[in-house]
Every structure is written in structure tokens, then in C-alpha cells.
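Customer ticket, subject: "Can you confirm the structure for Aminotransferase class I/II-fold pyridoxal phosphate-dependent enzyme?"

Message body: Hello, I'm evaluating your service for our small team and ran a test protein. I'd like someone to confirm that this is what the system normally returns, since I don't have a reference to compare against.
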Amino acid sequence: MSVQYQITGAAATEIAASVEAGVRSGELAPGRTLPPVRKLAADLGVAPGTVASAYRRLRERGVVETGGRAGTFVRQRSAFTPVGTLTVPAGVRDLVSGEPDPALLPDLSLLRGKVEISGGNYRDGGPCPDLLDLARDRFAADGVRGELTVASGALDAFERGLAARLEPGDTIAIEEPTWASGRDLLLAAGYQVAPIAIDGEGPLPGQLDTALASGARAFILTSRGQNPTGATVSAERAQQLRDVIARHRGVFVIEDDHWAELSQTPLHFVADAADRWMFVRSVSKPYGPDLRTALVAADADTKARVQGRMALGHGWVSRLLQHFVIAAWTDDGVAETIRRAGRTYVERQTALREALAARGIATWGTSGLNLWVPVADETAAVVSLRDAGYAVAPGRGFSFHGDQGIRVSTARLEPDAAPAVADAIAYASGPAAPPV
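Agent reply: Thanks for trying us out. I re-ran your input and got the following:
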């Protein structure tokens, strides 16, 4: 640990606060190992149990994690980690960011003439009825029915739904490997997580059953375009998951369908197998990350809790944003742009998946912006690919079990470039076990 930062405190809360302050300032950088419990206890003149309690608080808040012999170290991301800007070196191709291709997003400025802009007031705030009507029809076409509301993006919906149903310390079953931002939100909010392995068809039912039987109170799954793998829940897997959930009716299920209109594969709905559920469809991937809006379907009680709590806080999602979504959903030109984008993303992902398969490397992705490639040594693979001119994401940011892998974003990878990228990945990956 850096000698420039000294952890202080006489009580567990004070020690934890001192570590959080170091992480927030950047003096305790991500990956930095904290002192062993007994050494820090001796340095501070406190009982080892006091330090152990502080470290436990920090783990529950998602600030640190424990890696066996590696000790306790600062997480790569937490609510207290300074947020930096992803920088890809000059001359290196960006296969790391996982962002939508800006060239495939609709030009929302062309919709301004169709957007209702008014001063508004506090009394009439809330979800726009016209937007809910449009969402109801779109959801029904995919077999999703429930009470509807609006949130400020997927993570906002997750946080509000979980706060309505769970308490800090409760356990949530989530996919492994998983979406890093969602996991970090859960840990920062004080929830425990139970990783559920996935394959190309979604979460494994047996592992979900075990987690729910062991006390997990919620389950979060991704319908299509799972990040980081690109997996899609199949019809057979959806039914298997529904059967498991039906045996544990008290579980709260959140289903994330962020790929939505971009998907070239049908939705196989899972969430409403539970009595308490939420289905979340963000508009960020098809229409742009700045359009921070998600449509939410839920059971009546969960919807009432989420919307009621929102009314006591910031009130509602901006009516301007809601009207931009209405304009986008009712514009024929935008609809064609989205259809073209969906086809293009599939072509790009398929080109790399098939190029890797031709080189003996199996991947899962059939939708979304990414592929997950198992490797023997992810650090060596990332460095090798960088030297070859490609930036990819190391798997440790997505995995609980430390599975060695890399996430390759295909969002801006033209199909004719896929063979060269596959060659570089094959050289960098080394021998590794294929996906289970």
C-alpha cells in the first residue's frame, strides 16, 4: 500500500470511513492491497475484530473485495472510486468501450419539431400517458403485460425496484460473468450477490434454483445482448427459468431488455413467473445514451412503490425526454434507422464470431455489442492485443470467480476487419477451456 496514505480510526466505522476517503481521493487506487487485519490492528492499536468489522463494512458497500491469498484490495469500481475517462491510445482500435456506434444512432435533432416543449409544472409531472400507451402496445407485442411507469434509465429502475423490495444485506442472484455497472451498483448499495453461471442460452437453471433455495431474495437477468457475452435467453431456457422461479414465488425478478428494438431475435419473457417482478426496457442502446429513459412494466404493487418513491424524490423523468421518446417511436425514418442498425450490429458480431470459430475459438454471442472470449491469461492477452493494435476489456471487471477472459466489443468492427482481429485474438488467447 502507498506510504503516502495512512488509514486511521479507532472504531470500525472510522476505519471504514478512512479507507473510503482514500479511495475517493484516489490515494488508494483500484487494485491496491490493504494491510492484513492483524497488522492494521497493531498499527492502529485496536482489536483485530475491529479491523475485520471495518473490512466487512467495506466489502458490503462494494469498496473492497477479498481474493484469498491476495488479501483485501480496492475494487476496480465502487461508489467512491474516481470516475476516469476511457482513453484508447492513438493507433489502437477501440474494441473495449462497448458503446453503440454513433454512426448508427438516429439524429434526434431532426425530431425537435415533433417534440412537445412546454414549461410544465410540478402538479402535472409524471409519466406521459401517450408514452405509456405506446409502450403498452410495444410490450404486448412481445408478450409483456403489467403496470407501466418510466425511470431514468435501466440502472435507475434497478435501484428503485430493489429498494422497494429488498433491504441492504439481502442476497441477489445475478449472471456470471455479468454487467459490471449493474454489479457495482448492487455492491455499493450494500447487497450481497450470488453469481449464476450462464451459457449461450442464458442463466443455468440448476444454479439459480440452488441460489434461491439458499436465500437469495432477488434475481436479475438479461433477455438479449447480455453484457459481456452477447448471450440471448432461448425459449427452452426461459421456460426452465420460469419453472425454477415458480418454485420460489417470493423471489423478486428483474428482467433487463436493453437491446430491445435492435434485437434480431425474439423475446422469451421470464420475469412475470414471479409474483413480484419488473421488466425494464431502456432506450439508450437504440436511440443514444443521452436519452436517459427506460420504460418499466411491473406487478401493480411494485409499480406503485417505485412510482410513489420517485414522486417523493426527484419527481419524474423529464417530460422533454419522454416526448423525445414519443417522437422517436412514431417517426418512420427513425424506425428504419433502428432496423438498419440492428442488422448491422448482427453482421458485425457474426463476422467476428465466425472468424473466431474458424480458428477454433468458441464464443456465445448472438446479439448485443460484445463477445466474451475465454483465454489462458487475460492480462497477457490484453497486452498482446494492444501491441497488435486492438484495445479489449479484461474479464476481471465482469467476473466474480476470476474466470480468465476478454470482452471484445463488435459495435464498430466492420466485417471485413474481423479476420485480422480473430488472428490477433487467436495468437493472444493461448490454450483455454471453451465456454461451458
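A couple of notes from the result: The chain has 14 helices and 15 strands. Residues 54 and 156 are 28 Å apart (CA to CA). Feel free to reply with more questions.
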